[in-house]
Amino acid sequence: MTPERYARLRAVLDRRQPDLTIITDNVHKGRNLSAIVRTADAAGIAEMHAVIDDKDYKAFRGTAMGSHSWVDVQRHPNITTLIQQQQAAGYQVLAAHLDADSVDYRQPDYTRPTAVLLGAEKRGVSAEACALADAHITIPMMGMVQSYNVSVAAGIILSEAQRQRAEAGMYDQPRLAPAVYQRILFEWAHP
Amino acid sequence: MTPERYARLRAVLDRRQPDLTIITDNVHKGRNLSAIVRTADAAGIAEMHAVIDDKDYKAFRGTAMGSHSWVDVQRHPNITTLIQQQQAAGYQVLAAHLDADSVDYRQPDYTRPTAVLLGAEKRGVSAEACALADAHITIPMMGMVQSYNVSVAAGIILSEAQRQRAEAGMYDQPRLAPAVYQRILFEWAHP
Ligand SMILES: C[S@@+](CC[C@H](N)C(=O)[O-])C[C@H]1O[C@@H](n2cnc3c(N)ncnc32)[C@H](O)[C@@H]1O
Ligand SMILES: C[S@@+](CC[C@H](N)C(=O)[O-])C[C@H]1O[C@@H](n2cnc3c(N)ncnc32)[C@H](O)[C@@H]1O
Question: Residue B36: phi, psi to the nearest 5?
Fold first, then answer.
């Protein structure tokens, strides 16, 4: 490990956001999940949460981005329990979902502890998850097609979260708890 | 064709932006190009431009989104000529590219006639194309990974273009030339 590399790891950890995360509700294509992980890293997300079946999880771990990732992807068996856990921990859960009561994705305050919930490629966010979410957010679309690829939707929503957090100075000083910071630094420096 | 369907086609054409486009410089994976086309449709782009070799173009046309698309994808043999043509037609060409002189992607005025230039998965935007572009734009990244998937980058940049154009009222009344409007309406209504 060169000193430059070590400094780079620290600079990235200095910008990690312990209170911003992604939840995927049965996003099953490995390449979509990989692109979401890559985008989460870019927004400073340290840990994300996936409900995904065994076969799809295996395929995802086999992809280049899945096998060695800078974001900790936690697997969960049940979307309902997962959302309730996040809410109990103080997160607002924003379901990316087109609905009568959806608000524009730029409207929420992303400087609050926030979990962005993304749905499956075909089925979208499940009904149980939609019912539990604190709000439904939607990216306006001007064309014929009714939805974005899920990883593109993740990128657009996270770019807004990042914009708000940058404006609020949330990338300007370390925000991870010292113990978490040191644990991740150790893992990254000793792969 | 139901009256509702016909009205929907017209509503989409009413929002098409004749002076906003995408140029892809050897983006070769069919699924990336498909996701870019889907995202272009969402921003109201009517026509985009691709420099792509025969084999990759065939694979792209074989994908679900490639075979029937709402966006006209024009193929070009040469990136230099293509960029010069666009500039001669009055477009600013913005290369999505990380460079010393890059500006934040939110800085340009996207209400001007604009072509967003995207680079290949591995190689990025070619040196010739970078040299010709009017500006280099970059999406700030806070993490370890150095670039987004190209279709995610397209989504983030086009969401900003769309935001600026929506604010300027550019989706509020038809902007296609009447002859173009009628031609596309006829094609869409008689597939
Ligand atoms: C391909 S879409 C699923 C479409 C599905 N047919 C539906 O109606 O929900 C996959 C996921 O991407 C996200 N997404 C796609 N387009 C979106 C948009 N315009 N606004 C908000 N989220 C979007 C949502 O999380 C969605 O569940
Ligand atoms: C995977 S990237 C190519 C990375 C390549 N190694 C390079 O250094 O250019 C594919 C394309 O996505 C776009 N892109 C990805 N991340 C970007 C960012 N942060 N800012 C601007 N464009 C980006 C660019 O057009 C780039 O050429």
Answer: -70, -40
Domain that holds residue B56: 3-182
Q: Residue B33 is part of a domain; what is its CATH number?
A: 3.40.1280.10
| CB pair distance less than 8 Å for A144 and B12 | yes
| pLDDT of A93 above 80 | yes
Whether residue B188 lies inside any domain: the answer is no
- Tally of domains in chain A: 1
Amino acid at A118: L
ipTM: 0.97
User: What whole-number distance in Å separates Cα of residue A135 and Cα of residue B105?
Assistant: 28
Minimum distance, in Å, between the CA of residue B100 and any CA atom of chain A: 18
Ligand 2: centre distance to CA B132 (Å): 17
Confidence of residue A91 (pLDDT cuts 50, 70, 90): very high
Name which of B15, B40, B155 is nearest A156 (Cβ-Cβ). Answer: B155
Residue A34 lies in a domain: yes
Residue among B148, B149, B151, B157 whose CB has most ligand 2 atoms within 8 A, to mutate: B148
The pair of three-digit structure tokens given for residue B133, joined into one six-digit string: 């572009």
User: Measuring CA to CA, which residue among A125, A80, A83 is closest to residue A102?
Assistant: A125
User: Is the residue at A191 inside a domain?
Assistant: no
Tokens 């009447």 correspond to B178
Does residue A62 form part of some domain? yes
Among the bound ligands, name the one nearest to the CA of residue B119: 2
DSSP state of B190: -
- Kindly state whether B152 is in contact with chain A, defined as any CB-CB distance less than 8 angstroms: yes
* Ligand 2 nearest atom to the CA of residue B119, by list position: 27
Give the tens place of pLDDT for each residue, B59-109: 898 876 665 689 999 999 999 999 999 999 999 999 999 888 899 999 999
